[in-house]
Amino acid sequence: MICDECGRPATVRFVEMVDGEMRLMRLCDECASARGIGLSLAPLAGPLVSMLMGLLEEVGAEEAAELQGPVCPGCGLSYKDFRRTGKLGCADCYTSFENELRPLIRRIHGSTRHTGGIPSKAPEDVESIREVRRLKLELEKAVRHEEYERAAEFRDRIRSLESTPRKEDGDGNV
Amino acid sequence: MGTFEQMLAMPPSWLDASGPTSNVVLSTRVRLARNLNDVAFPARADRTGLERVRDRILAAASAGNYLGNALVLIMDESSKAQRQILVERHLTGQEFAEDGFGRAVIIGDREIVSAVINEEDHLRLASLRSGLQPMDAWRLVDRIDTELEQNLHYAYSSDWGYLTSCPTNVGTGMRVSVLIHLVGLVRSDRTAQILGSISKLGLSVRGFYGEKSAALGGFFQVSNQMTLGQSEDDIAYTVERVAGQLVTLELEARSELGEKGGQEIEDEVHRAYGILSSARIISSEEMMALCSSLRFGITEGFIDSVDLATVNRLLVSTQPGHLKCFDGRDPGPEQRDRMRADLIRKELASGNGV
């Protein structure tokens, strides 16, 4: 954070009304006290001040979020940090940053869909998820080509797959 | 179980030149990147988390058929010299040799299979085979992975497959990497063009020791770039096919060179042999260049008193970390170049099929 007045490191942030518009200012200690604000503000703690302070915090948080991008609740990594290091923090990052990662992963791999191996302890019945996904594509295609009998077949197979309870793991360890 | 010293005493089997097209391809490596689902990835996990990951993976490995009797090295207890040797034997990356919590390596018999714990990912399983055999290497590492996942919960999503620390590995987590000797193409000035077209096929090309190393002596690593969207079989097959084409091109280049300048090449490879078998001081770069010529001479039939496996082994056994260890202390660069020359003379004098 740099002082808007002199370019030195800023320590104070405050909201100023200029011509009826709210403006966020950043100032260093010196420029702040030159304007009669700064540390002396807090002890006043009047209703107007606390309203301003509330606004200030909100603006500050928004600004921080804008700078950092989303943050993964699983490990606390910000998307900005990921862009800097190229390394994700935990498995949850893939969900937390899904929107940001999707185009990136497409650029790297030319695909966003895993078609390879499935662990025996996969959290979901991946085989049937994959089959449903495939059938839905087939269904759309059939509808586009006005092949309604085929479409109905696909629809029934999707329904039956989606209503089947998933297989239990042998050791109940899901 | 074995010890580190016993491992060192036996050359890694991937250098023994017994695999398919060993005249051009030194080795094939297939590695799978895996993470446990309930601990942050290594760069973000704390010490307790990393040690828990390590202990769980070690327990799963010791219960299995493939890694049950393997050598286990806990990095906190290993010397810097030992870690350098792991890098030179292509068992771990350079970064892994630095300090970090919860790191360990499991090394199977003759270094055919290995597991690196808490490097960039919680687990990197690898198999290293002689010559060009991506399919075999993949099947082997897959069997170990299948065995381990009976006892480990991997981070996995149905959309994105195996979740990895770096999104460049997500999906299969699989990297197939072929160490290939393109001395003929380098001499015919055709590598830039051919290796350029390879990157268009979704493969990447690096030097002998990975990402940052130059292609010393015409040794290159060719590997798949994409890990998501293709099945493991398809990835292995693509690398096998493209590397196979490189082998064909390389053999053509070698025989063209032989036809055009047979006598010069015969002279040159014997000069290389002469220096290697009598010099008293050899730097690591000179060793790579001369061994490259010597390999060329052997595969083109100019030299028959040394075999390929001996030259392959020299490429690793004369690296700095290895020379340190045989002596028991750090010899410093000058002394090391003398030790390197001594070792090369000894190995070449003992002739073929050591």
Spatial sequence of strands, sheet with the most strands of chain A: 1-2
Q: What would you report as the Rg of chain B, rounded to the nearest angstrom?
A: 21 Å
Question: How many helical stretches of chain B?
Answer: 11
Major beta-sheet overview of chain A: 2 strands, antiparallel
Number of helices of chain A: 8
Structural class by helix and strand composition of chain B: alpha+beta
Widest sheet: strand ordering of chain B:
2-3-4-5-1-8-10-9
Distance between the termini of chain B: 25 Å
Q: Approximately what portion of the residues of chain A adopt beta-strand conformation?
A: 5-15%
Percent in helix of chain B:
40-55%
Spans of chain B with pLDDT under 50 lasting ≥5 residues?
none
Q: Share of helix among residues of chain A?
A: 40-55%
Distance between the termini of chain A: 48 Å
Morphology call of chain B: globular
The biggest beta sheet of chain B, please?
8 strands, antiparallel
Kindly state the number of beta strands of chain A. Answer: 2
Multimeric organization: heterodimer
Computed over alpha carbons, the radius of gyration of chain A is: 27 Å
List keywords for this structure.
heterodimer, A: 174 residues, mainly alpha, two-stranded antiparallel sheet, 8 helices, 2 strands, 52% helix, elongated, disordered C terminus, B: 354 residues, alpha+beta, 8-stranded antiparallel β-sheet, two-stranded antiparallel ribbon, 11 helices, 45% helix, 15% strand
Please outline the helices and strands.
The complex is a heterodimer of chains A (174) and B (354).
Chain A: E1 12-18, E2 21-27, H1 29-34, H2 41-44, H3 47-68, H4 79-85, H5 93-96, H6 98-109, H7 126-144, H8 148-163
Antiparallel strand pairs in A: 1-2
Chain B: H1 4-9, E1 25-34, H2 47-62, E2 71-74, H3 80-88, E3 104-107, E4 113-117, E5 123-130, H4 134-148, E6 156-157, E7 161-162, E8 174-181, H5 183-187, H6 191-200, E9 203-206, E10 219-224, H7 232-278, H8 284-299, H9 308-317, H10 320-327, H11 332-349
Antiparallel strand pairs in B: 1-5, 1-8, 2-3, 3-4, 4-5, 6-7, 8-10, 9-10
Helix pairs in contact in B: 3-10, 7-8, 8-9
